[in-house]
């Protein structure tokens, strides 16, 4: 009687498959975290909304004196802050306010950022901060990329993307931020800029602290742009008063976001 034995190669083949499967090393934990880092941190892009372009006279929270209208909008909602300035700003102690300026008269105005203050109902005063101070609190650190150094390529990619992200954030912030000073002439188009306020003691305020807050600033009237008469000499405009050097106080309510 012919006996048929079970082929040995079947078991060895199965064993070889098992051995081959075990020989395949799983994805290294470091590589996994590198991928997650790139997706969640290093490879993200900085994108925000553009500045609102509505003229100051369209805002309920505005005031007009000597032909200059000043409007203001406090951005206090975390999602709005993120949409306008990125996710990092809402984690800082800075509070952004959009300032809308519109010259509707014949005078020129010198407007300085340092003259703006945010006054709370309890009398506390928040001061305007320069954009570089705000940026220093928002900038993403490149230190996490160095943890990927053994992987070389992911580390280089992550570091490059962090630098690109910080560059775009800085460019956007400086484009939107109110400069240290600006001059608004007659017939200049309406403009809007952001001013970032901070408690001088570094105190973090709650949303309800701003319910009856106001924006206050002092603007210097610089007179008007001269015009030429028929003889080629400069002539004052009819009814124009000598107001050069006059200081004008503006107080604009900040109650209610998007108040129009």
Task: Explain how this protein is built.
By secondary structure, the protein is α+β, with helices and mostly antiparallel strands. It has a domain at 52-139 and 178-229 and 237-253: Sandwich (Immunoglobulin-like). 28% of the residues lie in helices and 27% in strands. It has helices spanning 8-23, 29-42, 78-85, 131-138, 143-146, 153-176; strands at residues 62-65, 68-74, 94-103, 107-112, 117-119, 125-129, 181-184, 191-198, 214-224, 227-228, 234-235, 246-253. The strands form two sheets. Strands 1, 2, 3, 4, 5, 6, 7, 8, 9 and 12 form a ten-stranded antiparallel β-sheet that branches. Strands 10-11 form a two-stranded antiparallel ribbon. The protein is globular.
Question: What is the element layout, followed by pairings?
Answer:
Layout: H1 8-23, H2 29-42, E1 62-65, E2 68-74, H3 78-85, E3 94-103, E4 107-112, E5 117-119, E6 125-129, H4 131-138, H5 143-146, H6 153-176, E7 181-184, E8 191-198, E9 214-224, E10 227-228, E11 234-235, E12 246-253
Antiparallel strand pairs: 1-2, 2-3, 3-8, 4-7, 4-9, 5-6, 5-9, 6-8, 9-12, 10-11
Helix pairs in contact: 2-6
CATH topology of the domain at 52-139 and 178-229 and 237-253: Immunoglobulin-like
| Outline | globular
Percentage of residues in DSSP E strands: 25-35%
Poorly predicted regions: 7-27, 37-42
Question: Per CATH, which architecture of the domain at 52-139 and 178-229 and 237-253?
Answer: Sandwich
Q: Tell me the name of the CATH class of the domain at 52-139 and 178-229 and 237-253.
A: Mainly Beta
Radius of gyration over C-alpha positions, nearest whole angstrom: 30 Å
């Amino acid at each position: 009687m012919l006996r048929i034995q079970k082929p040995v190669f079947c078991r060895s083949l199965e064993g070889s498959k098992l051995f081959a499967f075990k020989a395949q090393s799983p994805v290294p934990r470091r590589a996994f975290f590198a991928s997650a880092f790139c997706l969640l941190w290093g490879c993200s892009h900085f994108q925000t909304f553009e500045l609102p372009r509505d003229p100051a006279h369209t805002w309920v929270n505005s005031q007009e004196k000597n032909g200059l209208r000043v409007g203001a909008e406090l951005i206090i909602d975390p999602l709005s802050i993120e949409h306008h300035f990125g996710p990092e700003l809402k984690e800082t102690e800075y509070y952004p306010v959009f300032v809308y300026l519109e010259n509707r008269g014949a005078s020129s105005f010198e407007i300085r950022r340092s003259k703006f203050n945010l006054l709370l109902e309890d009398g506390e005063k928040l001061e305007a901060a320069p954009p570089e101070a705000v940026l220093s609190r928002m900038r993403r650190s490149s230190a996490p990329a160095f943890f990927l150094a053994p992987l070389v390529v992911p580390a280089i990619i992550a570091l490059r993307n962090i630098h690109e992200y910080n560059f775009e954030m800085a460019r956007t912030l400086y484009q939107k931020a109110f400069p240290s000073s600006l001059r608004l002439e007659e017939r200049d188009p309406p403009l809007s800029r952001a001013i970032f306020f901070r408690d001088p003691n570094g105190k973090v305020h709650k949303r309800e602290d701003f319910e009856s807050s106001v924006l206050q600033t002092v603007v210097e009237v610089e007179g008007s742009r001269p015009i030429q008469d028929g003889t080629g000499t400069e002539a004052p405009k009819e009814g124009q008063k000598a107001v050069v050097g006059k200081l004008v106080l503006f107080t604009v309510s900040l109650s209610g976001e998007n108040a129009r």
